[in-house]
User: Which sequence fits this backbone?
């Protein structure tokens, strides 16, 4: 492969000899130094620009992502191997270089055409544009709200997924470092517009928040931590059951979810964990604004089995009395497995 690149594109690449331990063959590090401003934005499926809030100051004006890339071949000139300006993660080669590389029999080669007709129709492009117009404003508003609550963690990786039950089909989470070594885990996407309707809205009109101690939410293993598992299970109930989300937005609501993987101290006799939704907080806002309307921030408080039993026995009087006791102790909305119950 090095020989092919040296023969066909000597002005486009640099080859640096390299030694690989336990191997006798000669290896090279290939540096593709040539950049060509050639991405055809109109013909590509979708392009997105890097923004200042992405925290990539050196990349503003460059592309954050390019889907279904198409290039303007008239801008390429005599370049054989090059990277497109503004999106240097992609490596482009001419047809003759592609064929020569394939003849070497090298494994791991995967070529995709970047010239020719656009991969999507004008109708599809218009639909994607409308989706972007709806889905791009809410995250910026949410991030502004999160940053007002503490330091938004840009490095910790919280699980994210495409989830068609969520309004905008995106299930995401944010992590906020708070005072006293606490961590706030919040949902992102329950307040997205309903993408299927293609109209502005705040989706389900809420986002969920669970605050805990740093030791309870290890940032290198968020997906397996009990606070994340609990918050995800609560989110599923919110998504599936209208009475749950409407009750949570209206005031206090008690919910039970599966206790698998939860700390033993939180799991009751039936193998389930109780949570109190909507516990008022002295340090978290009840609502926050977005371009499409206000969104309720619903706190999720993990209950001890004795507290859940207390609520069950007292019916409608149980949740507000328990909430009052949490406020008296100063615990408010914070969830911890290692604490004493506020009831006897």
Assistant:
């Amino acid at each position: 492969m090095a020989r092919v690149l040296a023969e066909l594109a000597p002005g486009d690449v640099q080859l640096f000899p390299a030694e690989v331990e336990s191997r006798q063959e000669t290896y090279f590090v290939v540096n593709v130094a040539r950049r060509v401003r050639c991405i055809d934005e109109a013909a590509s499926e979708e392009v997105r620009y890097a923004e200042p809030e992405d925290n990539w100051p050196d990349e503003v004006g460059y592309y954050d992502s390019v889907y279904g890339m198409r290039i303007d071949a008239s801008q390429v000139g005599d370049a054989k191997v090059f990277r497109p300006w503004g999106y240097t993660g992609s490596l482009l080669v001419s047809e003759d270089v592609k064929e020569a590389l394939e003849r070497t029999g090298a494994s791991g080669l995967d070529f995709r055409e970047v010239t020719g007709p656009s991969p999507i129709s004008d109708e599809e492009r218009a639909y994607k544009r409308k989706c972007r117009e709806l889905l791009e404003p809410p995250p910026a508003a949410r991030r502004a709200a999160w940053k007002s609550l503490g330091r938004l963690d840009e490095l910790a990786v919280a699980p994210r997924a495409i989830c068609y039950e969520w309004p905008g089909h995106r299930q995401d989470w944010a992590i906020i470092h708070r005072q006293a070594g606490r961590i706030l885990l919040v949902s992102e996407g329950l307040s997205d517009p309903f993408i299927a309707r293609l109209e502005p809205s705040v989706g389900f009109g809420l986002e969920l928040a669970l605050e805990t101690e740093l030791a309870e939410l290890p940032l290198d293993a968020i997906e397996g931590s009990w606070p994340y598992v609990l918050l995800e299970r609560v989110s599923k109930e919110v998504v599936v059951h209208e009475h749950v989300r409407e009750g949570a937005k209206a005031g206090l609501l008690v919910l039970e979810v599966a206790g698998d993987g939860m700390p033993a101290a939180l799991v009751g006799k039936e193998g389930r964990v109780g949570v109190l939704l909507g516990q008022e907080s002295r340090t978290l806002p009840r609502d926050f604004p977005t371009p499409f309307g206000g969104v309720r921030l619903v706190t999720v408080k993990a209950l001890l089995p004795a507290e859940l039993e207390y609520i069950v026995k007292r019916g409608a009087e149980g949740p507000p009395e328990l909430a009052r006791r949490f406020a008296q102790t100063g615990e408010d909305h914070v969830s911890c497995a290692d604490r004493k119950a506020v009831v006897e």
About this structure: The two ends are 74 Å apart (CA to CA). The CA atoms of residues 256 and 274 lie 4 Å apart. Residues 136-329 form one domain.
